[in-house]
Each structure stands twice: as C-alpha cells, then as structure tokens.
Amino acid sequence: MNLFIFNFKNMSMTNIPHLTKRFLLCGTFICVCLFLEDIRPILQPHQITLGKNPVLFWTDKISALPSYDILFLGDSRTLCGIDPIQIEKQLPGVQALNFAFSGGGLNPELYQLAQEKIRPGPGNRMVVLGITPQSLTKHALDNHHYHDLQKKQEWWWMRTLHLYGLHGIFEPFKLPLLVNTLKLMLSGKEVPKSFQEFHPGGWLALWAIPPQPGRNIAIYDQKFVNNPILPELEEALFAQTKEWHKKGWQIISFRPPAEPDLIHLEMVKSHFNEQKFIQKFQEAGGVWLNFTSGTYHTYDGDHLEKKSAIQFSQDLSRPLAELFKEHDALRAKN
Amino acid sequence: MIFNSIAFLIFATCFFLLWPYVRKTSTSRWSFLIVASSVFYGWWDYRYLALILISGLIDFLAAMAIHAIPNRKKFFLILSLTGNLGLLFAFKYISFAAKNVDMALTTFGYHPLLVQGIPDFMLVLPIGISFYTFQSMSYTIDVYRGQIQPTRHILHFFAYLALFPQLVAGPILRAKDLLPQLCHDRPVTPADKWAGLQRIAYGYFKKVVIADNLAPIVAMGFKTSPAEASGLFWWYMTIAFAIQIYGDFSGYSDIARGLARWMGYDFSENFNHPYTASSLRDFWNRWHISLSTWFRDYLYLPLGGSRCGNVRGYINLWITMLLSGLWHGAAWTFIAWGVVHAGFLTLERWTSWPKHLQKFPFGRSLSTLIVLIQVCIGWVFFRSESLEQAQAILTAMLHFSGGLSLGFGKTIDLNNFFITLLVMLPIMIREWMVYTGWFKPSLFPVAMIRIASPIWIGLILAAILYFRGDGHEFIYFQF
C-alpha cells in the first residue's frame, strides 16, 4: 500500500539490473496467480463446472444434425431432469436428444427447431414434452436462452471454445460470493458448493453440498406477476401435437418433478388448469404420463439433483420404451 | 476500442511491436500514429472518423491562414471556432436543444416536433467528440495568439490530434506541449518503460478493480426510489460514485500517460489527489486538470478573469462553470452540476472561508471535509437521471431521513455494503496518506523500496487479473 501511494518519479529503478526487476515482477505475479488458483476452490466453491466443455455442450445442442428418434423439449426442469442416455439404454440403436433450454418455452419457434433435429425418413419418432406452467408464459415465448446462445458471434464461440481452459484459470473472483464465503467461514458454517456437469446428449446435471431444496421456492411467489400463461400457447401446443400425431409420431407429455411445496405454489400463482390441459392434450393425440413429485430430491426446489435426475430418467424411460415398442409393433403390423 | 478489452490488448501488442521500427523518420512515425489511431477509434464506428478529419482540417487550414494572413487572423479564428463548435453542437447538443425548444413552444400551443427532424446519425454521440474538438481548437487559438508556430505538415498535425492514448477521454493536450515531442524520435529508456508500466498498472487497477466493481452497486443504488432509502444510504452511494468516477477517469488518464511514456512521450498530469483539496478552487486545480486549465486559459481569462472587478469576476466564473457543466453532457443535470460548483465557488471567493477556517485547530481537516461534501452534492446532480431525482436524493441527504439506518435489504444488502467499502478502501487510504503526508520515502531504505517496487507491481497485476469487475466502458467516453 505504501508504494501504491508513492510517486515513483524520484526512485529510479535503473540501478537494479533489468533482469532482476523482471524476475521479481514476473515471479511475484506467477506466485500470486498460482496461490489464488490453489485457494480458488476454498474461496469460491460456489459453482464448480465438470464434464463436457460447456461451449461444446451448447454448440452441439444448437447445431445438432437431424439424426434423433426421440427428442425431449421443455424448460430448465427438463434440461436438468432428463438424461437421454437412459432411454438409449432401454432402446438400443435409438438416438435421443435433450433439446431443452433454460427458461425455454413450448412455442411454435421451438417446435420448428425441434422438428429439424428429428431424423427424416420412415421409422418411429417420439417427442417428449416437459410441461410446466412457466414454459407456457409470455416470458418463455421469447426463448431467451436459446436466442442468447444463437446471437453469440462465431468468433465468440471460437474464442471461448479454444481458450476455455485458459478462461477458466483466469476467471475473476466474484466479490459478492467471496464476501459471502468469508462470512460463512468466519461464522463457522459450511460453505455451500454447487456443481454443474455437462453431459453428452444435452443433459445438465446439478447438485449441491449441502442440498438447498428450498432455495428457489420464494421466487415462485412473483414468477407469474405480469407473466401469465398464454392460452394461445396452449392451443399452439395442441395444434402441434395433432400435426405431429398425423405424421405418425408419438407425443408424450409429463410434468417434471419438483418440490411439492413449489409445485403447489406454482399451480396457485399461475392458475394452470392441469386437468383441462391433460384432457385437451389427449384429445389432440398425445399421451400423458404421471409421476409423483415427492419421490425425487431437488437441487434448489425447482430442478432435480443429479441422482434423482438419473432415477427419474430411468423411471420415465420404462413407459417411454414400452410406448415406443408398442408403436413399432403396430407400424410393423400395418 | 476500450483499454479494458481483449481487442485493445491485441492492438497494443501489435502497435508496440512495430513502433520501434516506424518511429525512426517523422513521416513514417506520424503516418503510423494516424493509422493506428484510426483503427483504435474506428473500431467503435469508422464512419465517425470523418468528424475528426473535418474538425482537424478546419483547424489545420485556419492556423495556416492565420499565420499567412495576419491581418485577417480574427476572421480565420472565428471561422475555425464556428466550425468546431458547430460540429460539437450538431452532434452533441442538437437533440437536447430541439427537445427543449419543442417543450418551450408546446407551452405556447405550438407543436413543432423539431426532434423528429434530426437525422439518425446525429442522434448518436460520437465518442470523445468534446475532447478532440477542444484539443483541436486550442491549437488554432495558440497560433492566433502567437504562442506557437503552425505546423506545415498535415500528418504532424493529425498525429497530434488523433494520438490514440488520449483521443477519446483525454487528457486534453496542448499543441505547444505535444507537437514538439512528435517531431523527434525520442529513445525510450528502460526507466521510461518501467514508469510507463507502473502508470498502466495503477490505471488498470483503478479502472477494473475499483471502478468496475463499484459500478454495478452504484447503478443498483441509484435505481432506488429516493423516498425508499435513508439519507445515510444516499451519502454512502454518492461517496461510492465519487470514488467510482475518480477511479474510472483517473485510471484512464494513467493508462494514457503510461502508453505515451512507452511511446517516448510525456503527457501532463490530469489528476493530483483531488479529494485531498482543502478548498473548492484547490479541487479544480487537482481534478481533470487538462480541462480546467483549458477553460481557464481559453475562456475564463479571455473573458477578463477576476481582473475586471468583483462582479465581472463572478459573472466570468459562472459562465465558465456553466459551460464546463454543459461540456460534460447535454442534460440539465450537468448544467445543474456546473451551477452547484459555481455557487460554491462564488461563496468561497466571497467569504474566503477556507482561509479563515484553516487558522483554527483541525481547520484544514474541516475545510477538506466541507469541500468533500460540496463535491458530493455536485456528484448527485452528475449521476442522477433527472433534476427531480437529484432533488429528491439531496432532500433525503440533507434531512438525514431515516436517521442512522442505511436501509439495507431493499436494493443494497449488507454484502454489497462490505464490497463497496473494501473496493473503496485503496483509494481512500491512498488519499488519506497523501493528505496527511504520512508516507515519506526517507523512512525506508532506498534499496528496499527498489526491490519492493517490482513485487508491488506484480501484486497489482495479479489483482487486476483476479479481482476485475465486469468490463464497463469508461464513464468519460460519453463526453
């Protein structure tokens, strides 16, 4: 600090060999960087990224080729709750993709994009929709996350993709998180750690230590203020279901599990009439699957944590596999 | 292009790799500086390079004409000033003027809607227009006054006008200081490189660690409805903004000075610990020195300064401060900022209160505190979105509404309070040490300081890398 305030004008450095100066400067810099990188997991344990390179994860998802037999659509609950590998295990030879995005909606733009990922030609095809009230709202119609990813320019993708490792190393410490960590450490409490793991197939696995299943519940109190469910989006979903059904595709829907308290609050605040929705969806040719929310653990109240997501994916895969095989048999008969 | 971007890092690396080879002859040096500066400026929007070209051509030709035809020199000066100020008005103030004329005429029942008639390209404020226009004008005025000889080489002139380190946010350089420097290939010594590195490191530290970490919290704070927060909260937010703008602007100036040093040039100091000033006049001798001296030399003194009697002196002061406010931006809040400073300066000159106060024990400290309060009141106008917001904030500040409560939990929580405090601390401690004269180099062995210096710079560079905030543009780009 003393040196920071001092005007160096009068302190010529010329009588210290330049090599020594450079050595001292670079040595200090490298030592501090190594030290900060070393203590980063202690000071900034809040979100640890594992698995596939996130940039590759998103580019692969956005630019996926039309080579999939089963596609999962929905918002972040589907993104974090469905591991498509589980259905591929049940149905060898079948390709599945989780094509869900954070805050993403179920709307014509996403249906069109989804359609472009389905394998063309003959054969059985299945579209699985994770239905949440949020995915049918005005905000979800913007498909914000998808457009954000799409808008990023080529050079951004290239830079982030190739320098990702470097970027992670020199990532700055987030001061609010740092202060929070120090506060918790000083008060002797456990510092929460969050993990996100990017998987091939479009699944983003989340978990936290310690778990914080109540974290996002309060958000739902305000989530639907000025952001109602749009009836036209429900109608568009039924119309799309009919159209795909006519093509011979299977359309399956389910409500992704979350904390029961959150689901209750969500239903009350959004005024979502699920029974009516299911009825109309079935009339359009879709199949609705029921799952009990309380049997799975969540990461933040909203999204399933990794183990529960795998469990849920397996539970979902069984009826999906049966439906797929039944449909295959029916097609073979015809 | 902004200094805190990857693009600039690449640009600067290329520039300094080529610089030793191109600076040998004047023509190659000037040409290279112009090309590099054009890339630097054009990175934002190359179309607005035309404005620098027009502004520069006006002054280059006017100065030549003044020198060649001395008996018509006033005419050429007026021509140059009209051209420059006309451009500045067209691109910076036309929208503001049109809105206010529209509003005034509406009250009389007319609806001219002048704003709608302004072409789109004039609604965009070209980055740094106020800086390069003033720099260009000072050249012509100096030639008119016979203080300098005009350069006959157009590349020499444009290298002076468009030199990239200071092009978009100053310091506003005088032709008599920079033009002669550009004439010679001054070797860059290891001491220059070292001094430049220190400047650049401090500049980036002030910008990316201090200003950029304060920026989101200050922005969040100023979004709070004034009635919802306490007076103490607003004092705190205003102090945070005072540190943010100081870190941001003096950081830019330091980077500019450091880069110039690496090129072999010397830019004048733009900030000299302004928050240690013990009078408002002293503050203006320490804050944005290149602008305040510009206004002093090209406006206040030509108007007569304080030599033509008290009343005339006060009028000149008010004109200078109002125009200084308007220079910062086309909005009533900036004009009000100028008015506030003019008011406080008038009071100071009239009563000489700092001089009287400093006769008492702790008088100097009290005097500095009062100046800080005055400056903070000014910053409220500078930062507010409207006069109404500024007025409401000032009411809360001066009435101390809410008592000692900082009003946490509404927009700013306790964590953010600690962050702002932590981030502001280096500048506060530094200013305090300068103010008290606590740090004396003689207290430490020179050898120790020499060894500690590179270690200190290494620490600063690591802090820049690891504690940088989200990249924001420099505040003064908008002026």
Can you characterise this structure?
- The complex is a heterodimer of chains A (334) and B (479).
- In chain A, 49% of the residues lie in helices and 11% in strands.
- Chain A contains 15 helices and eight strands.
- In chain A, the strands form two sheets. A five-stranded parallel β-sheet of chain A has the order 3-2-4-7-8. A three-stranded mixed β-sheet of chain A has the order 1-5-6.
- In chain A, a hairpin with a 5-residue loop joins β5 (193-198) and β6.
- In chain A, α5 crosses α15.
- The longest helix of chain A has 28 residues, at 306-333.
- Chain A is globular, with a radius of gyration of 25 Å.
- Residues 1-14 of chain A have low confidence and may be disordered.
- Helix content of chain B is 70%, strand content 0%.
- Chain B has 19 helices and no strands.
- Chain B is globular, with a radius of gyration of 23 Å.
- The mean pLDDT of chain B is 87.
- Chains A and B meet through α1, α2 and α11 of A and α9, α18 and α19 of B.
How much strand content do the residues of chain A show? Answer: 5-15%
Q: By helix and strand content of chain A, what is the structural category?
A: alpha/beta
- Helicity level of chain B: over 70%
What is the strand tally of chain B? Answer: 0
Which strand order do you get reading across the main beta sheet of chain A? 3-2-4-7-8
User: In terms of per-residue confidence, which ranges of chain A show pLDDT below 50 for 5 or more consecutive residues?
Assistant: 1-14
Q: How much helix is in the residues of chain A?
A: 40-55%
- Mean pLDDT across the residues of chain A is 83
What is the H-and-E element order of chain B?
HHHHHHHHHHHHHHHHHHH
Oligomer: heterodimer
